[in-house]
C-alpha cells in the first residue's frame, strides 16, 4: 500500500478555505471504492440514478495519477465528503469534475475543490506541449445553477452543453440493412485495431475539442478487463472500414453506446442508423433494454438528429464551463501565461 499523502492546508493555495477541522489530501489507489461511493450518492441525489459505474472509475483512474490529479476532502469525523479530479489525458483540454456529498453541500467544499483543481491545472501546464493554449474544462449537471455561478466567479465561461440520451426498448429494436456494398460485423481487435483507430481519428477530426490521440493511448481500452469486442461493431466496404459503433454493458438492464463514427465519404446513407440499431439489438438480446449515450447538443454534426430519429430522448444535461489557462511556456522558467 502506498504511504498516506500529507494532509493539505485548510486553504487551497490562493483559494477559499475549508471549514475549521476539515482536511484534504490527494487520493491513493485504495481510495477508489469510497470515492466511487461518494459519486454514486451524489448522482442518486441529483439525478435519481447512478450512471457512473465502479468500472468507469477504474478506467478513469487508469488515465490519471490519483496521487497527483485526484483530491479528497474529509470532515472532522474523517468521513469523505468531497472529491475532485483532473483528467490530463488531453494535454490541451484538462477535464475536471467535482463532487460534494449531498449532506455536506454549501459549506465551502465546492469552492475549495474548484480552486484546488484550478491551482493543480496551473502546476501541470508546463508539461503540455507548447504552441497551443490549454483549457481547463469543468463538467457538471447543467441544472446545477449554483455550480455555474461558482465557476463564473472563478473566471470560467459556458462552452457547451451535452445531452445524456436514452431509449428503452420494450420489444427487440428493428434492424436496418446497411447501404448496398457495406457489411456490418463484429470488430476483430487482433487484426484491425490500427484501421479502427485511423477511422476514429478521421470521423472525429472536426468534432468539438477533438484532440488526435496516439494509437498507444487510444488502444489502452482494448487491454482493459471489461473490454468486450463482441459489442464493437464495424462496417466494411470493399475491404475498408467505413463506420463503427462501440457499445458496452453498463448494468444488468442497461447498455451504453460510447462512440459512433462514419467515414465522411459514407455519410447520409443510413449507415450510422444501421450500426446503432445493430448495437441496440445485441444489447437487447443480452437483457439491456435501456440504452444511454452522450451527445453534443449543438446539432451541426447531425448526431443529435440521428439519435432522435431512432427514438432517443434527452434525460440529463451536462454543461461544460471552460477557463483559458494560456500557453505552456517551457522555455521561460516553466511559468504559465494567464
Ligand atoms: C453523426 C454521424 C455518425 C452520422 O452518420 P451517418 O451515417 O451520416 O448518419 P445516417 O445516414 O444514418 O443518418 C440518419 C439520420 O440522422 C440525421 N442526420 C445524420 N447526419 C446529419 C446531418 N449532418 N445533419 C442533419 N441530420 C443528420 C438525419 O435524420 C438522418 O436521416 P436522413 O439522412 O434520412 O435525413 C456522422 O456524421 C459522424 O461520424 N460524425 C462525426 C462523429 C460523431 O459526431 N459521432 C457521434 C457522436 S459520438
Notes on the structure:
It is a single chain. By secondary structure, this protein is of the alpha+beta class. It folds into two domains: 23-162 and 320-336, Gcn5-related N-acetyltransferase (GNAT) (Aminopeptidase, 3-Layer(aba) Sandwich), CATH 3.40.630.30; 171-288, 3-Layer(aba) Sandwich (Aminopeptidase), CATH 3.40.630.30. 28% of the residues lie in helices and 30% in strands. It has helices at 32-47, 54-63, 66-69, 109-124, 145-153, 189-203, 215-218, 271-285, 303-309; strands at 23-26, 70-74, 80-87, 93-100, 134-141, 157-168, 182-186, 232-237, 240-249, 254-262, 290-296, 313-326, 328-329, 335-336. The strands form two sheets. A twelve-stranded mixed beta sheet has the order 1-2-3-4-5-12-6-11-10-9-8-7, with helices on both faces. It has a two-stranded antiparallel sheet with strand order 13-14. Strand 8 (232-237) and strand 9 (240-249) form a beta hairpin. The longest helix is centred in the N-terminal third of the chain and has 16 residues, at 32-47. The chain is globular. The two termini are 38 Å apart.
Amino acid at each position: 500500500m502506498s504511504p498516506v499523502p500529507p494532509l493539505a492546508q485548510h486553504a487551497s493555495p490562493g483559494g477559499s478555505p475549508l471549514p475549521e477541522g476539515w482536511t484534504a489530501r490527494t487520493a491513493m489507489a485504495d481510495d477508489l471504492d469510497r470515492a466511487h461511493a461518494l459519486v454514486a450518492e451524489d448522482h442518486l441525489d441529483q439525478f435519481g440514478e447512478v450512471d457512473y459505474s465502479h468500472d468507469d472509475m477504474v478506467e478513469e483512474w487508469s488515465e490519471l495519477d490519483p496521487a497527483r490529479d485526484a483530491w479528497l476532502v474529509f470532515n472532522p469525523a474523517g468521513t469523505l465528503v468531497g472529491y475532485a479530479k483532473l483528467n490530463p489525458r488531453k494535454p490541451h483540454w484538462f477535464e475536471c469534475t467535482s463532487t460534494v456529498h449531498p449532506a455536506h453541500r454549501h459549506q465551502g467544499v465546492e469552492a475549495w475543490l474548484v480552486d484546488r483543481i484550478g491551482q493543480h491545472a496551473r502546476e501541470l501546464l508546463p508539461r503540455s506541449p507548447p504552441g497551443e493554449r490549454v483549457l481547463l474544462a469543468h463538467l457538471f449537471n447543467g441544472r446545477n445553477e449554483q455550480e455555474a455561478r461558482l465557476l463564473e466567479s472563478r473566471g470560467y465561461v459556458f462552452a457547451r452543453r451535452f445531452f445524456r440520451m436514452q431509449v428503452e426498448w420494450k420489444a427487440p429494436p428493428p434492424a436496418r440493412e446497411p447501404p448496398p456494398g457495406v457489411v456490418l460485423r463484429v470488430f476483430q481487435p487482433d487484426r484491425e485495431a490500427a484501421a479502427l483507430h485511423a477511422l476514429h481519428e478521421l470521423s472525429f477530426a472536426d468534432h468539438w475539442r477533438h484532440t488526435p490521440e496516439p494509437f498507444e493511448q487510444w488502444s489502452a481500452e482494448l487491454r482493459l478487463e471489461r473490454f468486450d469486442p463482441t459489442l464493437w461493431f464495424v462496417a466494411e466496404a470493399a475491404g475498408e472500414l467505413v463506420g463503427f459503433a462501440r457499445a458496452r454493458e453498463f448494468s444488468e438492464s442497461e447498455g451504453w453506446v460510447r462512440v459512433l463514427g462514419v467515414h465522411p465519404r459514407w455519410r447520409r446513407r443510413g449507415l450510422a442508423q444501421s450500426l446503432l440499431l445493430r448495437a441496440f439489438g445485441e444489447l437487447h438480446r443480452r437483457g439491456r433494454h435501456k440504452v444511454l449515450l452522450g451527445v453534443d447538443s449543438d446539432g451541426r454534426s447531425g448526431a443529435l438528429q440521428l439519435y432522435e430519429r431512432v427514438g432517443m430522448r434527452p434525460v440529463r444535461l451536462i454543461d461544460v464551463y471552460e477557463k483559458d489557462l494560456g500557453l505552456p511556456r517551457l522555455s521561460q522558467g516553466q511559468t504559465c501565461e494567464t
